[in-house]
Write a structure and sequence with these properties.
6 helices; globular
């Protein structure tokens, strides 16, 4: 009897997990290029700003995922990567405890008007 309940519980969890996964899937046709490029910039910022020893997500495939979801071209992605590198190199954050503030830097970057304006210009073909 306990085994039957356990199997039923496991089956329900699997069914629920499948329906959650399906409902949270991203539709490429409804994913804006501006959002994809902004997300690519954020992922690249984290890869550059957080020391490799601290990165558990170093081999994460999010950038590739956002590239696949969008119609953004290689030129726009390269331009974005250069913009991110300049930001990471020039934005200075200091911690009173000597902690790395790379993630904080990247969250502020993601929410910045500079990134918003940059993405709009890149997608219009401007630099």
């Amino acid at each position: 009897m306990k085994n039957t309940h356990l199997l039923l519980l496991i089956a329900l969890m699997i069914i629920q997990g499948c329906s959650i996964r399906k409902s949270n899937s991203i539709d490429k046709n409804n994913y804006p290029d501006a959002l994809a490029l902004k997300n690519i910039a954020f992922c690249n910022c984290v890869n550059r700003a957080v020391p490799l020893s601290d990165q558990q997500w170093h081999s994460d495939g999010s950038i590739s995922g956002y590239v696949q979801l969008s119609e953004v071209g290689e030129k726009e992605i390269d331009t974005t990567m250069q913009f991110v590198q300049t930001y990471v190199d020039t934005a200075k954050y200091y911690s009173s405890t000597n902690s790395n503030l790379g993630l904080m830097k990247c969250i502020n970057f993601y929410n910045s008007i500079e990134l918003k304006n940059f993405v709009q210009k890149v997608l219009k073909g401007e630099k």
